[in-house]
Amino acid sequence: MFCESCGAKIPDNAKFCKFCGAQQTPLDAPAPSVPAPAAPAAVDKQALIAHLDALYAAEMGMVYADQLMAQLAGQKKEALRRHSAQYQPAYFTEKPPERRNCAAEAQKELDRWRKSYNDHVQSLSSGRTITDRILHTFDRIQDQKDLAEKRTQIAHWENEVRLAPQRQALEDERWNKAMQPYNARKAQFDAREAARRSAWDEAGCAMGRRFDESIADTQRQKDEFAARRQKLYNLNIVYEKFRDPVAEFQLAEYLRMGLVNSLEGPQGGYAFYLNELQANRICGSIQELQRSMENRLDELIDRMSALAEQLRKANQRLHQVRSTVFDCCEAMRSGFAATTDHISRMSDDVREELDRQARPIREAVQRSEYNQYLEAMRRELDKYDYGRLRVPTLDEVR
User: Which of 87, 201, 322, 345 measures 20 to 30 Å from 364, CA to CA?
Assistant: First the structure.
């Protein structure tokens, strides 16, 4: 039997084509109710190459159109952003006429004069004695004048506080008259600024419309390429499975280089392309496996390097600990030896001191025992009248 997809000869009981991988209908299976697709039209080699080139051009035209539209959309966005950022708004810097608050000003001055008067009175009552007041008559007179002037100012500002509503009404009338030309100038400035902003925005919109026109032209070209591609597909020369730019370009190259003379069959372009795809997949899997093994090997090398570094640091710490322990043992041995020598010397000194202190005691004991012995002998000799005999002393015996 022959493959239903690529037309290659395959075994009768095959469920899939070994060339293109398409699923096959068994020979004993009932015929499908839907009509079979129309067989590709028989064309010569050069016409087939031209057909594939036209398909590839249409496919790539659509791809380039998509890329160009995406690029134009990005340029439009960036241009509008830069256009908006370049706009420098103007500000109305003229200050409005100042409006006085007559009541607040009068109350502030009144409070100031009252505080000054109270401070002055307090300083006169606490800063001078009675003698100073009698002796400094001129200063007392001047203080009275100052206090009188401050009372006058206080009275004046109290009157100003009472007249503040009338004065505020006059001030408001003056301020309203001064605000009319100011508001007119501000309104003119705002109108000019709004017109300038509108013109700037209109320029940005015009720029965006130019980009939109370019995008629309590119979309129309893409639609033309799509219509051309669909018209070529309707000729049903290339199988649907191979309708993509890569496959169409490779099939045309196979035909141009003379590797194949047709698209169908076991030696045709479809089978050659599928075999190349399978080989590329295998090579890709091998390369991926190689990269994975290289990555794992690098990871293993890194881990071994880290382990070796840890072992090196552990050996250094062990050597330091061993050196420390050896130094401690040596210090303990030296200290024990020094302690032993010191104890031995102390023991000898104690023994000598004990002997030195015990010698008089032993001598006294011996002398006491010998004297008792002599006394006993003398008593014994006295019994027999041998007192004429002289018993030697202990020192003479020695």
Answer: 345
